UniProtKB/TrEMBL annotation:
Name of the molecule in the record: CoA transferase
Pfam family, one: CoA_transf_3
Keywords: Transferase
InterPro entries: CoA-transferase_III_domain, CoA-Trfase_fam_III, CoA-Trfase_III_dom3_sf, CoA-Trfase_III_dom_1_sf
Species the sequence originates in: Streptomyces hebeiensis
Gene3D superfamilies: Crotonobetainyl-coa:carnitine coa-transferase, domain 1, formyl-coa transferase, domain 3
PANTHER family xrefs: SUCCINATE--HYDROXYMETHYLGLUTARATE COA-TRANSFERASE
KW Membrane (keyword) present: no
Coiled-coil segments: none
Length: 770
């Protein structure tokens, strides 16, 4: 049998299973290889873990430790296109010598480096990758974002890796792809390491206030709200007008508060005034009234409240699995199709696949060493973080990304004072490390799209591009005369990826959103904290980065679909849906309150203070065997024989005793030494690392060459965050620094759009170009 639908064989694991789920959503055939007793998630959370992660997949059972089982896996892989390999021990000899196979190996720390053999859990990888250092109260313990966000970052990167490998195979053979979960986290910190790289500064944990933009978490009369002062003078004026109407403005109407620098300097006071106003409103009513004024606020919802979200419901986001409602997929694919129902396979339901003969696509030529997306041209109309992060991923893997900025209004991250990260002049639009990080490897043009001539130039570019990506509000492209129907007239094969906060359809399509408000509406904020009355939330731009990664996945999937069918499509990605799709099992389990750094099954799991200022150790104990090893390292072997602590549930009930002993031991050691002692005995542990420690001290990232030096023509030489996906035959990388504003305008318009020298000169004279 020959088919164009890729077959993916999945050897599952915590850092790979989300990738398999995403590939189901893309229409791939995913075959889960289970041990004879069934995958361990069948027994996790009463089976809800299996329902969420593996619904829609096919199942075969094999004992891979036997010759018969190894032979069965070999036969299965011989007819597969992809091996998604998240097993602790990997596929082994069964995958060797299969030149057609895209083998994506997903591990906590990568296949090479001094810590490649370290044990990793979501908590430990989030600690060593820098995520934990960005969540929690200043001076208090670092806090893990809810629903295994480190695992899910690895999963979406692994899904991207699968598609990049398949695309590269169109002009070569299969290859091994090395995905490090730690690197996936380290590449997704917004300004976490950039503040150190560009300002020699390590920001403290932000608590409930965004470290850069004037947004945060506020108490409502019946819960919480995400929002703030917005990012433009219009938003401040609209919020101030509302406060004045209600007699709640205090002294904020005084002229001094019109200065955004003054507001930032005294932000704590401004937030107190806003909190006094917000706290009198029910969360849903306040959010709706704020959005009616085009102000970026959202109610902080818990997962059980998501099915009542009218936007998610109207866009058919949710998936029904055996009569139950689960979170859906991050975007509709292909061509607007939504998966609304999935079945759950029984162990070995598809055993016949082991003997099926299936023809797979073979290599047609030798590799040239070019990156996987070489030859793809992307028109980048994005700004700030979510959209530029998407196009950064595409550019890192070889796409020719042309960033279009307005002559009159460049990307806000070039000039916004509160987002400018630089040792130099904060008024120079070319020196901001924030902009320069997410726009590396791109070419840049400056164009006034408010003019007819500017839009005409844009249309000329669209005709010569494969992909257009934008993250404007839902109506902007239509107002420019460039809705999807118009784009298809210009370029019938165009892949159009829109990335508005709520999507282009639905009753809330016009809502204004930032990363924190999207996280608030998804359930992530409400589940991140120490308890129902102590919500902290994920305040930095995690939601933007998730949306960017999912948009990159959608783009490569759409390019593959076009290669098979000849058809482009519109990917109407909602940033709210993208992050809601990262909420794991929370809907199935009806999660209603944060649990801090604890785990619902394992014990102990937590973060413990060590020697030094703000130094912490993350530890996870997944089994009784690891508990015994931990007790030995602590010098308390008798605790492993204590009947009060003999199971994870008993250890959880005796958490004061367990955490007290572990905390006392950790307090006398450096975090790095404590982690090494535990890892030597196979216990997952790692220091909580901030931006400085990631850049200067992490031996694993250094061995993998994660931070890459590149020279910028204005900002000078600096380190860039690297590429967490390593394709061994068609690697991506940092090839060039971000563009100076308008630096490539003439070159791009001449070579790509075919604009004559005479027309270029006229457009410059008229101020259409810079």
């Amino acid at each position: 049998m020959s088919t164009s639908i890729p077959r993916v064989v999945e050897l599952s694991g915590p850092f790979a299973r989300f990738a398999g789920r995403l590939l189901v959503g893309l229409g791939h055939e995913v075959v889960l290889v289970e041990p004879p007793e069934g995958d361990e998630t069948r027994r996790e959370l009463g089976g809800d873990a299996f329902v969420h992660w593996h619904a829609g997949k096919r199942s075969v059972t094999l004992d891979r430790s036997t010759a018969e089982g190894a032979a069965g896996l070999r036969r299965l892989l011989a007819g597969a296109d992809v091996l998604l390999d998240g097993a602790p021990d990997g596929a082994g000899p069964a995958a060797e010598g299969l030149g057609h196979l895209v083998h994506v190996r997903v591990t906590p720390f990568g296949l090479v480096g001094p810590r490649s053999g370290w044990q990793g859990t979501d908590l430990v990888v989030a600690a060593l990758g820098g995520m934990l250092a960005q969540v929690g109260d200043p001076g208090g313990p670092p806090l893990r974002p809810a629903e295994n966000q480190a695992e899910q970052l690895a999963g979406v990167n692994a899904a991207i890796a699968v598609l990049l490998g398949l695309r590269a195979r169109r002009r070569g053979a299969g290859q091994l792809v090395d995905v490090s979960a730690q690197a996936c986290v380290a590449a997704a910190l917004e300004a976490g390491a950039l503040a150190y790289l560009h300002e020699d500064r390590v920001p403290p944990r932000p608590g409930r206030v965004h470290p850069l933009v004037p947004h945060g978490l506020f108490r409502a009369a019946d819960g919480h709200l995400g929002g703030g002062l917005g990012g433009s003078p219009r938003m401040w004026d609209a919020l101030l007008a509302w406060l004045r109407e209600e007699g709640a403005d205090a002294d904020l109407a005084e002229p001094r508060w019109q200065d955004p620098v003054e507001r930032k300097k005294h932000q704590e006071y401004v937030f107190e005034v806003v909190q006094d106003f917000v706290g009198t409103w029910p969360k849903a009513e306040f959010a709706e009234r704020a959005q009616a004024r085009k102000l970026p606020w959202a109610a902080v919802d818990l997962p059980h409240e998501l099915p009542d979200n009218p936007q998610l419901s109207a866009r058919n986001f949710f998936t029904r699995v055996e009569g139950r409602t689960d979170v859906g997929f991050p975007f509709a694919f292909p061509e607007g199709r939504r998966i609304t129902r999935l079945g759950v396979p029984g162990p070995g339901d598809d055993q016949a696949l082991l003997d099926e003969r299936r023809t797979v696509r073979r290599a047609e030529g030798a590799f040239s060493g070019r990156p996987a997306l070489d030859g793809v041209r992307v028109l980048d109309l994005t700004w700030v973080l979510a959209g530029p992060y998407c196009t950064k991923v595409l550019a890192d893997h070889g796409a020719d990304v042309i960033k279009v900025e307005s002559v009159s209004r460049p990307d806000p991250t070039r000039f916004a004072p509160f987002m400018h990260l630089s040792r130099g002049d904060h008024t120079d639009p070319n020196t901001n490390g924030y902009f320069n990080e997410v726009n590396r490897n791109k070419r840049g043009i400056a164009l006034d799209t408010r003019t007819e001539e500017g839009v005409a130039v844009l249309r000329d570019l669209i005709a010569s591009c494969d992909v257009l990506v934008e993250n404007f509000s839902a109506t902007v492209m239509t107002r420019l005369g460039l809705g999807y129907d118009a784009l298809r007239e210009i370029n019938p094969g165009i892949v159009y990826v829109s990335m508005s906060g709520m999507g282009h359809t639905g009753p809330r399509a016009g809502w204004v959103s930032y990363a924190d408000t999207v996280s608030a509406g998804s359930g992530l904020t409400g589940l991140t904290g120490w308890g129902p009355d102590d919500v902290v939330g994920v305040i930095y731009g995690h939601g933007d980065i998730v949306a960017g990664l999912q948009a990159a996945l959608a783009t490569v999937a759409a390019l593959e679909h076009r290669a098979e069918t000849g058809r482009g499509q519109h990917i109407d990605l909602s940033q709210l849906e993208a992050i809601a799709a990262h909420m794991g099992t929370s809907l199935l389990t009806s999660s209603r309150a944060p649990i801090g750094n604890a785990h619902p099954v394992w014990s102990p799991q937590g973060v413990y203070r060590c020697l030094g200022a703000d130094r912490w150790l993350a530890v996870s104990v997944r089994s009784d065997e690891e508990w015994a090893a931990l007790c030995d390292v602590l010098g308390r072997p008798e605790l492993s024989a204590d009947a009060r602590l003999s199971t994870a549930e008993r250890r959880r009930r005796a958490s004061a005793l367990v955490d007290g002993v572990l905390g006392e031991w950790a307090r006398g050691l450096s975090a790095d030494l404590a982690a090494e002692l535990l890892q030597e005995r196979g216990v997952p542990a790692g220091a909580v690392q901030d931006g400085r420690e990631l850049v200067e001290h992490d031996p694993q990232l250094r061995a993998r060459g994660f931070y890459v030096r590149a020279e910028h023509p204005v900002a000078g030489a600096f380190l860039h965050e690297g590429v967490p996906i390593h394709l061994t035959r068609t690697p991506g990388g940092v090839r060039r620094a971000a563009p100076v504003l308008g630096a490539d305008t003439d070159e791009v318009l001449r070579d790509v759009a075919g604009i004559s020298p005479e027309r270029l000169r006229r457009l410059h004279e008229e101020g259409v170009l810079r």
